[in-house]
Amino acid sequence: MSFTFDSVKEVLERQVQPRLAQHGGGVKLCDVSEEGEVRISFTGHCCTCPAQEATLNSMVSETLKNAFPQESLTLIAVNTVDDDLWNMAKTILQHKTEV
Fold first, then answer.
1. Which residues pair with 26 in a beta bridge?
2. Which helix (H) or strand (E) holds 41?
3. CB-side exposure of 54: number of CA atoms within 13 Å?
């Protein structure tokens, strides 16, 4: 399997996402560089989970290293705000301005 954004995304969606979803969380692929940097963000309950670093270093890292053994990967967690959280905040703020 070639090391591309789409192939990394596929591995994350097939192998990591279902396991994180069992806990109300998830992972989103942000970027893959030619140098092997893979930037991800956690979603849902994983955003605030105290085990986030362990999940990144064990489950996500090992899964990608097994899928792309020829690559020298650097996994980077990017702190972003989940789209669902943004939408909830917008709804609350809209409601407050209408009152």
1. 43
2. strand 37-44
3. 4
Burial (CB count <10 Å: 0-12, 13-18, 19+), residue 6 = exposed
In this structure, are residues 45 and 23 in contact, taking their beta carbons and an 8 Å threshold?
Answer: yes
Q: Is residue 41 within 8 Å of residue 27, measured between CB atoms?
A: yes
- The residues near 73 (Cβ < 8 Å, ≥ 6 apart) are 36, 37, 38, 61, 64, 65
Model-level pTM? 0.77
Which of the two residues, 47 and 76, has the higher pLDDT score? 76
pLDDT at 99: 56
Helical segments of the chain, H only: 5-11, 17-21, 52-55, 61-67, 83-98
Phi, psi for 35 (deg, rounded to 5)? -80, 0
Q: Domains in the chain, start-ordered, CATH in brackets?
A: 5-94 (3.30.300.130)
DSSP run (H or E) holding 32: strand 25-32
